[in-house]
Amino acid sequence: MDSMEQIYLSHARTVYAFLLTKTQNPDLAEELTQETFYQAVKSIHRFKEQSSVSTWLCGIARNVWFDHLRKQKGRADFKEAEEIAVPSAEEEVFCSWDHLSVMKQLHGLEEPMREVMYLRLSGSL
Fold it and tell me: Can you state the angle between helices 26-42 and 53-71, rounded to 10 degrees?
């Protein structure tokens, strides 16, 4: 296992992007990203390397997001959050691939699909 600093540098953007899709709020996504890595440090002994580090971190991020929603009693109840939280195929792919791999795959697409996917992943669509 790499040091947590290396893990953070390698995966913070992925976790942040995942949480940004959930929260639609950059400040909240940043706060929850920090909480995700705090929880990861606390539970690093439970990581069995049966999945990629980014998948493990996104799982922690999802739980951190659910915890946040539970604390926000008037905004949405947990049952509604579960319905909203079903990750799309593109979220799972984005969370499991590193950024460079995604860009390589996108570059191989034909227009107009390439442009649509660039816009979709950048949040402009």
Answer: 120
Alpha helix segments (H runs only) across the chain: 4-23, 26-42, 53-71, 78-84, 89-96, 99-107, 113-122
Look-up: residue for tokens 């442009």? Answer: 115
- Over its C-alpha atoms, the chain yields an Rg (Å, rounded) of 15
23-66 pLDDT per residue, tens = 889 999 999 999 998 988 888 777 777 677 888 888 899 999 99
Report d(CA 91, CA 123) in Å as an integer. Answer: 12
Query: What is the token pair recorded at 18?
Result: 């995942």
User: What 3-state class would DSSP assign to 72?
Assistant: coil
Please provide the size of the chain in residues: 125
Nearest to 32 by CA among 80, 70, 77, 66: 66
57 touches 40 (CB < 8 A)? yes
Structure pTM?
A: 0.57
**What's the rounded Cα separation, in Å, for the pair 107 and 113?**
10
